[in-house]
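Researcher: Quick test of sequence recovery. C-alpha cells follow.
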C-alpha cells in the first residue's frame, strides 16, 4: 500500500514528506506506551546532488516533555540524492502519552562544494485514536 503523505515542507529545492500511522499492536496502553511509525520521503528538486549528513528531531509529548535527538544520517544511511532522486525510509516513535508531535531538520551537504544547509522536517502530530487513549 502506498503511503499517504500528510505533511510536507520544502527548503531550498528539497522536499520532505511525512506519513504517520498509530500502531496499536505495538503499543502497550496499560503501561503508558503509545507507538507510531512514520514514513519519510526526501525529494531532490535541485539542479545539483545533495547528501544527507545529520538529523535533528524535537519530539514533544502532551505533558510538555521535550526530547531532542541529534545523529548522523537516517536509519544508518547518509543518502546521496542526484537531481530528481528520492529517498524513503521508515522509523518509529514511542511516547508515554497518547498524543505528541515531532518536527526537526536534516543537514545536507551540496555535492559540488560541500556547503552545508538545513532542510526542514515538517511538524506532524502524533495522536492515538480516542478508543486507544486509555
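Model:
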Amino acid at each position: 500500500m502506498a503511503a499517504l503523505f500528510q505533511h510536507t515542507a520544502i527548503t531550498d529545492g528539497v522536499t520532505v514528506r511525512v506519513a504517520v500511522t498509530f500502531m496499536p499492536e505495538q503499543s502497550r496502553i496499560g503501561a503508558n506506551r503509545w507507538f507510531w511509525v512514520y514514513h519519510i520521503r526526501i525529494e531532490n528538486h535541485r539542479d545539483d546532488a545533495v547528501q544527507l549528513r545529520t538529523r535533528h528531531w524535537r519530539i514533544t509529548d502532551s505533558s510538555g516533555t521535550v526530547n531532542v535527538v541529534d545523529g548522523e544520517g537516517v536509519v544508518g544511511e547518509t543518502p546521496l540524492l542526484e537531481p530528481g532522486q528520492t529517498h524513503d525510509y521508515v522509523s518509529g516513535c514511542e511516547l508515554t502519552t497518547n498524543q505528541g508531535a515531532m518536527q526537526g531538520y536534516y543537514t545536507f551537504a551540496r555535492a559540488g562544494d560541500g556547503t552545508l544547509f538545513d532542510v526542514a522536517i515538517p511538524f506532524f502530530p502524533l495522536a492515538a485514536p480516542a478508543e486507544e487513549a486509555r
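The chain has no helices and nine strands.
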